[in-house]
Amino acid sequence: MAADPSPRSRTRVVLADAAARRGTADRAGTDLTEQTPIGEALVKGLMRAQLALALRLALVVAAGLGTLPLLFAVAPAVGGYRVFGVHLPWVLLGLLSFPFLVGVGAAYVRWAERNEQDFAALIRRPER
Amino acid sequence: MNPYLAPGLILVVLLTVAIGAYGLRFARTTSDFLVASRSVSPSWNAAAISGEYLSAASFLGVAGLVLRYGVDVLWYPVGFAAGYLALLLFVAAPLRRSGAFTLPDFCQVRLRSRPLRRLATAFVLFIGCLYLLPQLQGAGLTFSTLTGGSYAWGALVVSVVVTANVAFGGMRAITFVQAFQYWLKLTALAVPMIFLILQWQSDGRPEVTPPAGAVFPVATTVVVEQDAVLNGVRPVEAGETLHFAAGDPVPTVSTVDAEFGDQWLLPGKTGLFATYSLILATFLGTMGLPHVLVRFYTNPDGASARRTTLVVLAMVGLFYLLPTLYGVLGRIYTPQLLMTGNTDAVVLLLPEAALGGGHLGRLLGALVTAGALAAFLSTSSGLLTSVAGVIFTDVLRSGRSGSIRDFRLATVLAALVPTTLALYVSDMDVSRVVGLAFAVAASSFCPLLVLGIWWRGLTDAGAIAGLVTGGGAAMAAVLVTVLGPPLPSSFAEFVGQPAAWTVPLAFLVMVGVSLLTGRRVPPDVGATMLRLHAPESLRT
Asked: Does domain B5-214+250-538 have CATH number 1.20.1730.10?
């Protein structure tokens, strides 16, 4: 979002509302709850970051697991390859897919929480 | 009959009741329960969710499918686990923050539309019934396999027991009970598997697919249940008894659909369309299952909902390593199931078949059966509770002040249809029916949840249109598959595995109609989005 108009309108809202309410409410927090354009922009930014993260990781899964049926169909020789005497498709699907999914999930939880912390830090940032 | 069986089953029921009663001391009302569970750590909560999720289809059905069809059906367990990743990525935290307890609740919170709420209710009921059906089928199958009794009695007995339990509150959906059921199910598959693998080693590691074809490991008697042709040449009649000596080759039976040799061992037998359809249905369907969502409300906040989902993914993934092994070892030790077609019973029969009828084999057989009982009890109780809850609030319109009697009525209503269906539909693979339930959930609630959470432009009209076309098409496909006549093979794939076209259809219609009716976007969508996505710590 454009950065230009934000300082002005933010100042105006805070002066009007924060004093009237509890005196402690911070500017961006008020922007959020009062549904000002800035608050909207902040939430949109968070949503965009979270959605981009989720889509990126979904793409990783689509590339890692989703291409397997195609691979087995295009190159049947892959199915004949053995790992420790077990055919590769069995190893990939029956064993390795599960740790792969958990790994992607763990990465998501870590980064999604970081996004939220960044967002919270942005809201709580003391404006001096 | 196995002498350890009855004590084992009674022990499971007693432990379930005892843990439930212990939990009840702390939680007497529904709200007490919800508040109490907020002090429960994500790992306990995750065990409870996994316990409810791992149904008869997972416990018995996956191994049966692997035994029968081989590597191609490994997409079932992968998809059942990956569904939780999709849930984690797109739904978990915002859904918890929405405060919605059921899917109709979510429709109300996000789009404020009564008609949409009613439509969502209809879909919850349909998916719930469709998902209960294979649980009861599995129960009937277990009963008839172990006692020789009739299939119908088994299904009926479990149905009546679960209905009575839910209706009289004998087993409330208490976190610790469901968590206990998860660990029981995991143990019941893992411990026998250790002995089975040791046995396989000491037998000199017999090949899973010997080049000369499968052979009987011991002398076996098979009773023919319907007229068929063996190996394409020898006709046999129903009621005929066939004797095979150890080392005899396993004949193929014309009435049983199964794969042998490289067809079983290597991928590619199932068409690409059906495989991708299955992947879409299972990856995206989990988030739309009624009993899965209810449990998310027991997390204290969005961040812990995410962490809980991650632990569930790990627990479910750990569990799904085991059924595949049962299916593979079943190829060696219980090949007669490929003749009778009763492949879903492989988990129950394998311990005794491989380890012999001694104390060890029987004890492990009883353990596996106890795990199967836990699977029926936990999943059907959870499902029935959530379906009955929806009937209670949205169909009987009892509201919060509704009486316990209304809830009991709702429970009986919820149990009626799946029980009747289970008595008539007995010959479908348990996992296949579950796959169909996933397909309906993926083409109805998945688009609704994903678009509702991430797209401001969704309108009630768009949501309704998408549910009706995408979900309706999947529903129709399921009804034709389950109840209708056999279809010509070129057409059967599109109807039997509909997700690959119904899911995109639902998304497209939902987005298209929403764009056309842009003026109907709820005016408070900004506030709703803030509530869904902002961390709870910022709420004042």
From this structure: yes
